[in-house]
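Dear colleague,

Thank you for sharing your sequence with our group. We've completed the structure prediction you requested, and as agreed, I am returning the results in plain text so they can be pasted directly into your records. Please verify that the sequence below matches your submission; if there's any discrepancy, let me know and we will rerun it promptly.
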Amino acid sequence: MLDIFVVSPYRDERAGVTGNRVHEAAKYVAELTRKGKVCYSTVSAMHHVSVRFDLPTSWEYWKKHCEAMMANAYEVHVLCLDGWEQSEGVQAEIEIAKMFNKKIQYVKKVGQK
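Please find the predicted structure tokens below.
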């Protein structure tokens, strides 16, 4: 069982934004792991796989994957990075977390809750 499933925005057409989001998600996962938490972020764990093997980046493609991982977590942390409120995937994952009755924490800045 995962302690924490980390949700964060991913895709963006502006140069460097997606890479920054991946970095921030990985940084947060590292912080949680350093504290002894077992956690998972699809953005940080699967970005390199998606890029290297030309997988789709749409929410529809990753929905099943995210649902399965979230179902096995005690709680969900939402990284409130730029664009999180407009992100189709983030908003859908919040609704899934509510459906699974997961505790949800909104993380305003990596390193702070």
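Summary note from our side: Residues 26 and 44 are 5 Å apart (CA to CA).

Kind regards,
the structure core
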